[in-house]
Amino acid sequence: MTRLSIYAELGLKKVINASGKMTALGGSALTAEVAEAMARAAKDYVNMEDLFRIAGQKVAALVGAEAACITSGAAAGIAISVAACIAGCDLSLIERLPDSAGLPNEVILPKGHSINFGAPVTQVIRLGGGRPIEVGHANEVKAAHFLGAIGERTAALLYVKSHHTVQKGVISLQEMIALSKEKNIPLIVDAAAEEDLNQYLKLGADLVIYSGGKAVEGPTSGFICGRKDLIEACQQQYRGIGRAMKIGKEGIVGLLVALDRYVNRDNSPEVADQKKRMSWLVEKLGEIPYLEAKLIQDEAGRQIYRAQITLDEKRLGLTAKEVVKLLEEDNPAIYTRNHFVNLGIISIDPRPLLPGQEVIILERLREILSRSRT
Ligand SMILES: *Cc1c(COP(=O)(O)O)cnc(C)c1O
Prior knowledge:
- The chain contains 15 helices and 12 strands.
- By secondary structure, the chain is α/β, with parallel strands linked by helices.
- α3 packs parallel to α11, α4 packs across α6 and α4 crosses α10.
- It is globular.
- The chain starts with 5 loop residues before the first helix and ends with a helix.
- The model has no long low-confidence stretch (mean pLDDT 94).
C-alpha cells in the first residue's frame, strides 16, 4: 500500500474496477501466487516446444479434455482453430494461410452470433483463413439455414456462447452438435468468458476455446481444448499464422497456476465475502435520497451478487449516464457495470474490487449526487 502503483509511476490514473473482467481495464488482477510463478518463469530458460506440450497435457487433464493447445487469448484461439480446420497438419497449407483460395474454407455461424467482443468475430475467422458465412436472421436461425449453407466448401461450424449474442430464436448448441455429427464437420465453440470448462466438450463439441484472463483469472492467455487430431493441427499452426499470436513462457506458466487454482477452488467463502460487502454498500447507498439500491444476483444465475443502483434521474437532475461519466473522469477513475444505464441503472460488480474499494465508491457517489441537488 505504501508503494506507488506501477501505473501511477507511468503517470496514469488509478483505476477502481467495479464493472467485471474487462480487457479494456487490464483483464484480471492476478493473485500473488500466480504473479510469483510468472516472475520465476520469466527469469529462466526452457525448451518452448516441450513447455507447450506439457502445458497442453496439464490443461487437458484439468478440464477433462482429450487434448489442449495454449494460445495468447481466446481471439487467437478462434483464428488458430479455424486455421487448423482448413490446413490441418499440412505444412505447405499452414504456411499459405490466411490465403485459403481453392480450399474448403467456409465457417458457418448463426447471424445472431456475429458479435463484436472488442473486435468482430468474423475478422478473427478471416485471420485464420476462414470465410465467415452468417446464416439465418439476427433473431431467428434454424437448422434449415445451416443445411442450406453446408456444402463442399464448408470447413467448420462456429457457435459463440456469450451474453453478447442474441439469446432467443437462435439454434441451440445441442442442435448444432447434432448437425456437425450428421454432416461430419467440426464444430468450434467460442466459450471465452464462460465459467464451465467441461460441459461443451461433454455435449460433443470438437474444439472449445477459453480466455485465460476472464473466468479463470489468469494472465493474458487462452486455450483450445478438444479432439486430439484437431488439437495437434492447432499446435502446428504456430509454424504459420499462430506466430503472430505468440504467448511467452511466463504467460503459459501463469495460466497453468491460475487454471489449477480455478478448477480446484472452493469459492464459497469468497462469494459470502462479496455478498457481505455489497449488502453493506446497498444499506449505505439507501441513505442517499432519490436512489434505490438493491442486492441483485447475476441475471444468468451465477454466484455473483451485485449492488444495483436505480437513480431517480428527474429529481436528481442528473442521468445515470452523467453519473458514470463523472465516476470515470475522476482520479481514481471508477468503472461501473453499465448494461442498463439507459434505464437509469448502475451496477457495482464485487469480483474485481480490491478490499475497501466499496468505501471509496460510496463516498464518490455521495459526493456526486449531493452536488447535483445544490
Ligand atoms: C473476450 C472474448 C473473446 C476474446 O478473448 P481474448 O482472450 O481477449 O482474446 C472472444 N469471444 C468472446 C465471446 C469473448 O467474450
